[in-house]
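Bench notes, afternoon.
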Amino acid sequence: MALQAGVGAPEFGLLATPYQRVALSEFDRPVVLIFFPADWSPVCGDELTVFSAASGLFRARGAQILGISVDGPWCHEAFKEQRKVAFPLLADCNPKGEVAQAYGVPRRRRHFGACSIRY
């Protein structure tokens, strides 16, 4: 079940790079979480490219974008470089999909979409 409006965002700590863990509580501004199934799927790549192009608009309004998928940090690093993604991609891979489940992101569809989170 998806999070209801007004419910506090579940805390998490995920790898943003192979050597750097990022926690939600580290951000002192609104965070937009983009859950997506996989780095190299065509639809997800296009969606993340659009969000990357619009990342300046989010920053101008005081928000930080974070992408989350079950791919590992090494895969995210290669994908970010190839697709020029301008925001962190976090690895929800150990255990697989735990953060997505905590946020009520459905797995039955290929496209997860984005949700805006304030804490």
